[in-house]
Every structure is written in structure tokens, then in C-alpha cells.
């Protein structure tokens, strides 16, 4: 068991007129090797939640454990936690800053105190795993295309060899092909390197397609925590809280209303296709 | 007369070294032709780097053509004296709402544009009221923009553009940063402006399902228009779209895959309703279809 949140509550601007409870007694267990999606409308607490996972925010109440250790105990090594639980923020390319792609990716390992050679080795490995070609290594990161910049930024986090990777809307602003490429890349890292992945997303279709487990945040609490099929079964409730189900889930509902005998729980194109072909 | 008329439009980004010698030329728009009739709802698709945003920036004279011609609302954008009137005719809404809102109160933000062009105070307030009502944000007029959701902020940004009474609004990926609800809100507001106020809309987006209700779609790649047609035409060409790094709406893709698996479905199914009625048609016209199940039992 790798990350455990026990009764986590977080209040912004505590003891001021602007006090706001962003997380309200959240209990979660995130196990090694899981591929998790977190969904919720803007302001539901999902970003606040993920910022607790690597200790960027400290809970007002409650305990968070990483590999069995309370990260809020005195002298806990938060710096090391942050290298093990890597975070890719929204629009990570805005955080590129070095003169070359290689130097940028080396920045993390350098701060971990690795030798120059180790840094380079880590960086090369990371750049390779995000599929960035060698000809870009010595270029300025600002000359890359949008999708390439994002890969470079993800490589910067991977170079620290995290065992948990959190990505906050990694596909925002990318074209459909770029979206698929980044998601396939993440899926590949999850499968090949066994990294635990936590994906924050606004796309119900992407979440349905890629993750094994969905956590739905609403009003600072966990509303649902289940496999995609089960979560999207509650599509009416999801709409109430500003979310939706994948398009195909609605289609299956419509088919049922039109008198077809279908299983309404399909959440991906593959599932819907199989279900419809059974009819015809 | 077309409200937007681009002919052989070329734009090159030119990088110069310190002495002013040309180091690199990047052709972002490559002899592009595109025209829009007043009142149309147009979508522009294209992968990252295909030239969509460069084109959008020409529409309100933020960038100047390297060669070719572009007329907006009957005005040649390359003429210095037309720059301000062009900007007034074609308003822009960008991706990130936080970069476009400047005032600390919603109604002041919306009033900023008209105030800048010297509209009399009384008329400013009338315009603010009209614009905020047209995007459904009137009740938030005294709120601080930073407490609004992404979709609400984006609607305030659209109201700010509406207050300039433009003929045409260009939206460059206005929903990329929004959650599903926010996306719905913004699209509904834009469609309403198009239908009720007759504002011409140019929507640039990466979300294929936002394009389904447009009148006409242009697909760009490498600075050129490579496909154009109605949404149904465009989304019938699944493989061609994929070559341009694009996609089709999920329902269209499902229908396409079902067709490939042998079902007798038409090309370019756009909505759930269409697919359901097509499947019903198949069921009703084919007595060996779903009834087979009953016979088996």
C-alpha cells in the first residue's frame, strides 16, 4: 500500500473571513501500480487533493501516510517524498526554463544530488521514454512544438524516477493526435515501468478509456470511488455535479429507451461496439 | 458580400539575428483561401502548429499578412487606417480566461472596451447590460471575476467582446481549460449569440464534438486549408482526418467502426439521435435481426 489518506481535511485561509473547506474528511488508499483517474468540476477539490499527495499542501486535520510512514511527523523527509511522488502540473511546458532540453531534464536529478554522469544518464532515459528524438536534446525547449514541450516537461519529472506520477490535465490544449500520444505514453509507462499513475482529467472519454479506477470529487469529498463502468452508471448524479458520462454511455441509454436489449454500462467505443454487434 | 475573405494569404515568421540578417523563415500560412458569410457559424480545425491561431490573429489585425489579401467586414486589413475598425468588427476570445480579464468587478471589465473607444457613459452601461444578459452573466455583474468558474469567466470575456458590438467573434480554443459544464455553458452562449444576435462566429477548437453544430468547417494543415465542408462531409472522411492528426466525435467513430464491422450505416453519423434511429431502421427492416433472439428462446 503506497499512499493512504486518513480523514484529511484542508481549509484555505483558516481563521479569516475567507476560510473555505477545500477537502472535507477525505479517506483514500492508493495502491502500488494502480492507474487512477480523478474527476470533478472546477473547484471540487481535486487539485487540492493531489497537492496533498506529495506534501505540497499540509492537511489542516488528518494523517497522510506514504509507504506506512506518516509524512506529517517531525523530521520526515518531504524532499525525498517529492522525488518519489512526481507531479506534472497543468501546462507543464510553462515551467521549462533551461537553455537546452537536456539541461532542463537534468534539473531534477541535479537537485537530488546525483553526479553529472548520473544526471545525464537519467535524463537520456527519461527523454527516450517520452519519445523525444535525440536531435532535440541540445535545442532550446522553447523551440519545440506544443506536444514536444509537454513531453520534455514530463521527462523532467520522470528523470527523478518517481514511483508515483501525478498528472494534472496533461492533455489540455493538445490536438487529438497529441492527446492520444501523451495518454498512450502514460499508459506505456504505467505498464512497462509499473509506475502508479494518478490522472486528473476533464475528459470523461479519456478517463473511461485509460484508467482502472475513478475517484469522483465533489465539494471537497469523495463522491464515488470505483471502476469506470460503475462510476458512469451514476451519469445523472454526475451531471448534477457538473460532470458527464462518455458519449457512448448516453447512446446505450438511448438505445435501451428505443427498445433495444442492451447492457447500458458500456463506457468505451470498444464496449459499445461489441454490445451493438450482439444485437444485429 | 463575405464578412471574411482571405485570398492567397501568406504569413511568414521571420527570425533575424542581431544585425538584422534573416536567420530563419517559417511559413505559418501558405496561400490560404477562406471565406465566411455574415451570420455563419464556422469552425476551424487543425493540429497544434497547423496555423489556426496565426490565421485568427490576422482576423483582428494582430498580425499582418506577408502577402496575399484579407478583407474583414469589407476592409482591407493591411491598411493602417483600417486597423482599429477591423478590431472593432472582429472581437477575439482566447484560451485562458485569466489572461483576458483585467478589472476587479465583472461589469467594469465588460465596460472597459467601450470606454476605451469613447462611448458615452450612459451608452456604456446599456452595452454592459445587454452584453452580460446575452451570455447569461447579468446577475454576476457586481461579482469579482476571480471568484467565478472557468466557464463563467470565459462568458464574461465574451461579454467584453460583445460590448464592442462586433460583427464577428473569433474564439481561439475557448474551452480548452474548462470542465465539461464550463464547456457546455460557453458553447451554448456562443450559439445563442449566433442565432439571436446574428453574430458571425469563428470557432477554433480541438474538440471534434463542438464542431457538429457548425454551418461549415475548415480543416487546416501546414498553413493551408486542406478540407472544407459541412460537419457531415468532414466527419465522413475519418481516415483523412486522422492523417491531419485529428479525430471525429466519439459517436461518429463508433458508427464508422460499426459500419466497418458490416452494419449498413451511412457515413458521417453525427449525433446519438441519428445513430439510434439508424439502428432502429436496421432492426425494423431486418426481420432476422433482433427477433432472431426471440426465435432462439
Estimated radius of gyration of chain A: 20 Å
The helix-strand sequence of chain B is EEEHEEHEHHHEHEEEHHHHH
Specify the CATH homologous superfamily of the largest domain in chain B.
P-loop containing nucleotide triphosphate hydrolases
Q: Return the average pLDDT of chain B rounded to an integer.
A: 91
Mean pLDDT of chain A: 92
**Percent in helix of chain A:** 25-40%
Give the total of domains of chain A. 1
CATH H-level homologous superfamily name of chain A: P-loop containing nucleotide triphosphate hydrolases
CATH architecture of the largest domain in chain B: 3-Layer(aba) Sandwich
Query: Could you give the order of strands across the largest sheet of chain A?
Result: 6-7-8-3-9-10
> Are there runs of chain B of 5+ residues with pLDDT below 50, and where?
290-297
Biggest interface, chains and residue tallies:
A-B, 40 and 45 residues
Shape of chain A: globular
**DSSP strand tally of chain B:** 10
| Total number of helices of chain B | 11
Describe, in plain words, how this protein is organized in 3D:
- Chain A is built from eleven helices and ten strands.
- Chain A has 280 residues and is α/β, with parallel strands linked by helices.
- In chain A, strands 6-7-8-3-9-10 form a six-stranded mixed sheet, with helices on both faces. A four-stranded antiparallel sheet of chain A has the order 2-1-4-5, covered by helices on one side.
- Chain A is globular, with a radius of gyration of 20 Å.
- The model of chain A has no long low-confidence stretch (mean pLDDT 92).
- Chain B is of the alpha/beta class and 297 residues long.
- Chain B has helices at residues 52-59, 83-89, 106-116, 121-134, 150-162, 180-196, 231-235, 238-243, 250-260, 272-285, 291-296; strands spanning 4-16, 22-36, 41-46, 67-72, 75-76, 90-93, 168-172, 200-204, 216-221, 224-229.
- The longest helix of chain B is centred in the middle third of the chain and has 17 residues, at 180-196.
- The termini of chain B are far apart.
- The chains are: A alpha/beta (280), B alpha/beta (297).
Amino acid at each position: 500500500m503506497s499512499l493512504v489518506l486518513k480523514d484529511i481535511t484542508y481549509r484555505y485561509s483558516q481563521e479569516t473571513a475567507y476560510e473555505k473547506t477545500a477537502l472535507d474528511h477525505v479517506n483514500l488508499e492508493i495502491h502500488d501500480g494502480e492507474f487512477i483517474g480523478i474527476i470533478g468540476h472546477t473547484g471540487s477539490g481535486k487539485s487540492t487533493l493531489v497537492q496533498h499527495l506529495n506534501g505540497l499542501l499540509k492537511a489542516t486535520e488528518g494523517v497522510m501516510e506514504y509507504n506506512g510512514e506518516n509524512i506529517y511527523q517531525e523530521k520526515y523527509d518531504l524532499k525525498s517524498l517529492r522525488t518519489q511522488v512526481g507531479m506534472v502540473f497543468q501546462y507543464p511546458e510553462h515551467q521549462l526554463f533551461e537553455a537546452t532540453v537536456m539541461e532542463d531534464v537534468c534539473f531534477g536529478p541535479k537537485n537530488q544530488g546525483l553526479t553529472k554522469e548520473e544526471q545525464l544518464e537519467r535524463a537520456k532515459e527519461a527523454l527516450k521514454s517520452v519519445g523525444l528524438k535525440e536531435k532535440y536534446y541540445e535545442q532550446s525547449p522553447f523551440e519545440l512544438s506544443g506536444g514536444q514541450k509537454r513531453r520534455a516537461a514530463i521527462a523532467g519529472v520522470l528523470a527523478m524516477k518517481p514511483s508515483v506520477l501525478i498528472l494534472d490535465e496533461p492533455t489540455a490544449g493538445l490536438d487529438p493526435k497529441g492527446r492520444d500520444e501523451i495518454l498512450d505514453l502514460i499508459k506505456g509507462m504505467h505498464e512497462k515501468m509499473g509506475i502508479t499513475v494518478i490522472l486528473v482529467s476533464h475528459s470523461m472519454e479519456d478517463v473511461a478509456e485509460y484508467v482502472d479506477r475513478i475517484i469522483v470529487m465533489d465539494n471537497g469529498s469523495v463522491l464515488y470511488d470505483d471502476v469506470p463502468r460503475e462510476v458512469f452508471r451514476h451519469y445523472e448524479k454526475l451531471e448534477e455535479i457538473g460532470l458527464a458520462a462518455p458519449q457512448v454511455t448516453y447512446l446505450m441509454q438511448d438505445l435501451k429507451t428505443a427498445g433495444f436489449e442492451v447492457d447500458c454500462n458500456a463506457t468505451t467505443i470498444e464496449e459499445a461496439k461489441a454490445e451493438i454487434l450482439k444485437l444485429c | 458580400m463575405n464578412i471574411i475573405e482571405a485570398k492567397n494569404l501568406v504569413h511568414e515568421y521571420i527570425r533575424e539575428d542581431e544585425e538584422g540578417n534573416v536567420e530563419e523563415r517559417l511559413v505559418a500560412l501558405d496561400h490560404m483561401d477562406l471565406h465566411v458569410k455574415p451570420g455563419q457559424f464556422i469552425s476551424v480545425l487543425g493540429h497544434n502548429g497547423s496555423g489556426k491561431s496565426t490565421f485568427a490573429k490576422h482576423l483582428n489585425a494582430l498580425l499582418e499578412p506577408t502577402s496575399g489579401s484579407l478583407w474583414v467586414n469589407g476592409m482591407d486589413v493591411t491598411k493602417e487606417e483600417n486597423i482599429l475598425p477591423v478590431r472593432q468588427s472582429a472581437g477575439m476570445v482566447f484560451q485562458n480566461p485569466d489572461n483576458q480579464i483585467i478589472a476587479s468587478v465583472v461589469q467594469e471589465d465588460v465596460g472597459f472596451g467601450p470606454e476605451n473607444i469613447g462611448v458615452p457613459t450612459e451608452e456604456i452601461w446599456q452595452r454592459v447590460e445587454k452584453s452580460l444578459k446575452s451570455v447569461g452573466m447579468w446577475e454576476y455583474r457586481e461579482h469579482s471575476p476571480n471568484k467565478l468558474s472557468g466557464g463563467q469567466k470565459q462568458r464574461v470575456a465574451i461579454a467584453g467582446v460583445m460590448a464592442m458590438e462586433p460583427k464577428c467573434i473569433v474564439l481561439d480554443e475557448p474551452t480548452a481549460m474548462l470542465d465539461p459544464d464550463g464547456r457546455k455553458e460557453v458553447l451554448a452562449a456562443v450559439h445563442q449569440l449566433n442565432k439571436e444576435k446574428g453574430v458571425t462566429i469563428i470557432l477554433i477548437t480541438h474538440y471534434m464534438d463542438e464542431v457538429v453544430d457548425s454551418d461549415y468547417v475548415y480543416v487546416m494543415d501546414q498553413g493551408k486549408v486542406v478540407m472544407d465542408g459541412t460537419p457531415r462531409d468532414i466527419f465522413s472522411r475519418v481516415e483523412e482526418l486522422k492523417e491531419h492528426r485529428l479525430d471525429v466525435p466519439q459517436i461518429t467513430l463508433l458508427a464508422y467502426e460499426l459500419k466497418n464491422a458490416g452494419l449498413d450505416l451511412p457515413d458521417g453519423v453525427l449525433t446519438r439521435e441519428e445513430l439510434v434511429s439508424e439502428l432502429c431502421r436496421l432492426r425494423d427492416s431486418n426481420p432476422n435481426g433482433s427477433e432472431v433472439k426471440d426465435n432462439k428462446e
